[in-house]
Structures are given as structure tokens and as C-alpha cells.
Amino acid sequence: MKKVIYPGTFDPIHYGHIDIAKRASKLFDEVHICVSDNVQKDPMFSHDERVEMIEECFNDIDNIHVHSNPKNLVINFAKDCGAVAIIRGLRHVSDFEFEFQMANVNYSIDSSVSSLLMIPDEKFLHLNSTIIKDLAKHDAELTKFVPENIEKRLKGKLQ
């Protein structure tokens, strides 16, 4: 059974993330979304809220599983899970340098786990969670960017 990890902060998850996870679910037997914390980010949603929102987005896809991983290195989580790869989204050339660096670090820790960079559908290339939160703060229409459950949570958080 081939398992892949899809790590991220997901604050909040958006259609770019969802696109990558769904496509990965067709390539691998299991996709394990790994919700991590990034000390350099100040998330709008708590760790548990992010896990819950992601679970809501994928409750109809049997081979996508959501996990909480607030403290562990992603590469260690991947090893513990028995994953063969870590998937990361790549939107722009500017993302490449960081992802290339992380892939090399992860490979030096455990060469049995590959890093795969996936490009989301072109209609989602411009999306990131910071933009989504900014749009929500200005009461913009979000249906093109996030599922309804995420939009409701964003607007509820900002009221």
C-alpha cells in the first residue's frame, strides 16, 4: 500500500490545497493530510479547528485521512506513518527554492521518503491562505476560493 503525506498549516484550507489532495488520492492508496504548526505563522484558527475543517472537506473521500501533527517533524511523521513520499504544492517559481531546500533536508534525514512537488490547477495558482483571510476581512465573496464550510468559519471568526 502506497501512502503519501500532504503536510501544511492549512490556515485555512482552500481549493488549491483540496485540488492537490484529491489528485494525490488518485495516485496513492492513502493520502495523510498532516496539519502542522509553523512557529513563524500566527494562525487565525486553532490547530484543532484546522483539523476539523479539513476533515469536513474530505469526509466523502475514503482514502484521505487527516492527522494532527503540531510538534513532530513532517519527515518523522512520514516515517511513522509508513509513507513513501511527501507532497508539497508548488504555485510559483518563488515557492521552488524553499521546497527544494526542504526536500533536500528531508532526504538527508530519511532517503526512503521522496518529495513530490505538485502544481495545482491553474485556476488556483494565485491562492494562498493569507489572501483568503484578507479577502474575508474585507467581506469579499469567497465561494471561488474555499468551500462553504470554510467561508462560514472565516466569517464567523471575523465577526
Keywords:
alpha/beta, single chain, five-stranded parallel β-sheet, 18% strand, 159 residues
Description of the molecule:
This protein is α/β, with parallel strands linked by helices and 159 residues long. The chain has one domain: HUPs (Rossmann fold, 3-Layer(aba) Sandwich), CATH 3.40.50. Helices cover 43% and strands 18% of the residues. It contains six helices and five strands; from the N terminus they run βαβαβαβαβαα. The chain has helices spanning 15-27, 47-57, 74-81, 93-109, 129-137, 148-158, and strands at residues 3-8, 30-36, 64-69, 85-89, 114-118. Strands 3-2-1-4-5 form a five-stranded parallel β-sheet, with helices on both faces. The longest helix has 17 residues, at 93-109.
Shape descriptor reads globular
Total helix count? 6
Strand content: 15-25%
SSE topology string: EHEHEHEHEHH
Helix content: 40-55%
* Secondary-structure content class: alpha/beta
Would you spell out the secondary-structure blueprint of this structure?
Elements: E1 3-8, H1 15-27, E2 30-36, H2 47-57, E3 64-69, H3 74-81, E4 85-89, H4 93-109, E5 114-118, H5 129-137, H6 148-158
Parallel strand pairs: 1-2, 1-4, 2-3, 4-5
